[in-house]
TrEMBL record:
<dbReference type="InterPro" id="IPR046373">
    <property type="entry name" value="Acyl-CoA_Oxase/DH_mid-dom_sf"/>
</dbReference>
<dbReference type="InterPro" id="IPR009100">
    <property type="entry name" value="AcylCoA_DH/oxidase_NM_dom_sf"/>
</dbReference>
<keyword id="KW-0560">Oxidoreductase</keyword>
<dbReference type="GO" id="GO:0000062">
    <property type="term" value="F:fatty-acyl-CoA binding"/>
</dbReference>
<dbReference type="GO" id="GO:0033539">
    <property type="term" value="P:fatty acid beta-oxidation using acyl-CoA dehydrogenase"/>
</dbReference>
<dbReference type="GO" id="GO:0046949">
    <property type="term" value="P:fatty-acyl-CoA biosynthetic process"/>
</dbReference>
<feature type="domain" description="Acyl-CoA oxidase/dehydrogenase middle">
    <location>
        <begin position="137"/>
        <end position="227"/>
    </location>
</feature>
<keyword id="KW-0809">Transit peptide</keyword>
<keyword id="KW-0285">Flavoprotein</keyword>
<feature type="domain" description="Acyl-CoA dehydrogenase/oxidase N-terminal">
    <location>
        <begin position="22"/>
        <end position="133"/>
    </location>
</feature>
<dbReference type="InterPro" id="IPR006091">
    <property type="entry name" value="Acyl-CoA_Oxase/DH_mid-dom"/>
</dbReference>
<dbReference type="Pfam" id="PF00441">
    <property type="entry name" value="Acyl-CoA_dh_1"/>
</dbReference>
<feature type="domain" description="Acyl-CoA dehydrogenase/oxidase C-terminal">
    <location>
        <begin position="239"/>
        <end position="386"/>
    </location>
</feature>
<dbReference type="GO" id="GO:0050660">
    <property type="term" value="F:flavin adenine dinucleotide binding"/>
</dbReference>
<keyword id="KW-0274">FAD</keyword>
<protein>
    <submittedName>
        <fullName>Acyl-CoA dehydrogenase</fullName>
    </submittedName>
</protein>
<dbReference type="Pfam" id="PF02771">
    <property type="entry name" value="Acyl-CoA_dh_N"/>
</dbReference>
Length: 393
């Protein structure tokens, strides 16, 4: 149906998000979209099934300037938060594991070095990490310290001019790929961050297996047993939990956008399937109940995209409060997984086949809505901001 202006609704962009992006944002989006189509989508189903990650894409992502793209200097292009978000959406359209790789590299590991590192640390690590030549991971979560990182048991004690680290981190994306691990540990002066070269004696990374989500992603355990590093490995500006939580806020912003990419992939798969799959003599898109599902997915997707865009613009203008980021992650995570589940139903039996992207995205999103803050934690963080009452503890 045409409007009075002659504009027709685009089924693949129902809220005309494209018109709200700048030329620069559309250019980087199109570049990454081509990369995903050519390098990720052809074999992502097989990689998911075999639980492998194509680490060769690191330097390709680096050459496109998307690793640490929102950071300034040291080989980083200093692009807008919205541009970074648009890239996250395109990468997660391919797979959550690809977006997670870039997000951990840029918004966790590189962000920690950029915000809290010394000049020597920045010059040593950031340029090769931006190029994808060196990989980083972010060691915060522990077996007994997930939603409450203040409970961490990993320790760092002074021994002369060095620090000796002991402890275990788990659910660490990129761990077994990394050249440097940003490790958060408890010291006599509180929680501090350390840059641990993964070749250091006493450091070991082990792959976590038996995953049924984020299978095309490297998830690891980090073990530190008498791991000795010089004081120059300590992040000098990082003191207390505020530092790692600031990095998490950056990564969560990428998730707000990334989930819209996964949701779009599921919605488009359902739309394509419904308009070509025939039952009872016509495409199933011709039935009212199927149309209702498609409409609900399109409306919810558009709403999630507009929320991501709004938060991106606000972040570029004046920054975001942590609770605003929580609103975005909570809302868009929920929306994306509901779209995935609805799309799975539209595809019927085909919905559980890796020939289509839906079941892969659906299971990936089960992790995405939990990591970097569960729904419960984000809900209570928002509730605290609304009421002034802390119900988390």
């Amino acid at each position: 149906m045409s409007t009075s202006t002659g504009h027709e609704l685009d089924p693949r962009d129902p809220v005309d998000l494209d018109a709200s992006l700048t030329d620069e944002e559309r250019e980087i989006r199109d570049t990454v979209r081509r990369f995903v189509a050519e390098r990720v989508l052809p074999d992502i189903g097989e990689r998911y099934e075999q639980a492998t990650f194509d680490s060769s894409i690191a330097t390709e992502l680096g050459s496109m300037g998307v690793l640490g793209m929102h950071l300034d200097g040291y080989g980083c292009p200093g692009m807008s938060a919205t541009s970074y978000g648009v890239v996250c959406a395109e990468l997660e359209y391919g797979d959550s594991g690809v977006r997670s790789f870039a997000s951990v590299q840029g918004s966790l590991a590189m962000k920690a070095i950029h915000a809290f590192g010394s000049e020597d640390q920045k010059h040593q690590w950031l340029p090769p990490m931006a190029a994808g030549e060196k990989i980083g991971c972010f060691g915060l979560t522990e077996p007994d310290a997930g939603s409450n990182p203040a409970q961490m048991r990993t320790t760092a004690r002074r021994d002369g001019d060095d620090w000796v680290l002991d402890g275990t981190k788990m659910w660490i994306t990129n761990g077994c790929l990394s050249d440097v691990a940003v490790v958060w540990a408890r010291t006599d002066d509180g929680i501090r961050g350390f840059l641990v070269d993964t070749a250091t004696e006493g450091f070991e990374s082990r792959p976590m297996t038996h995953k049924l989500s984020l299978r095309a992603s490297v998830t690891s355990e980090l073990h530190l047993d008498g791991c000795r590093v010089p004081d120059s490995a300590r992040l000098p500006e990082a003191a207390g939990l505020r530092a790692p939580l600031a990095c998490l806020a950056e990564a969560r912003f990428g998730i707000i956008w990334g989930t819209t990419g996964a949701a779009r992939a599921c919605y488009e798969a359902a739309l394509d399937y419904a308009t070509t799959r025939e039952q009872f003599g016509k495409p199933i898109a011709g039935f009212q109940l199927t149309q209702r599902k498609l409409v609900e997915m399109a409306v919810d997707l558009g709403r999630a995209q507009l929320l991501a865009l709004h938060l991106g613009r606000r972040k570029d203008e004046r920054g975001l409060a942590a609770e605003e980021v929580s609103i975005g992650k909570l809302a868009n995570g929920r929306t994306a997984i509901e779209i995935a589940r609805t799309a799975r139903g539209v595809l019927g039996a085909s919905g559980i086949s890796l020939e289509y992207p839906v079941i892969r995205h659906m299971t990936n999103l089960e992790s995405v809505i939990t990591y970097e803050g569960t729904e419960e934690i984000h809900t209570l963080a928002i509730g605290r901001a609304l009421t002034g009452e802390n119900a988390i503890t």
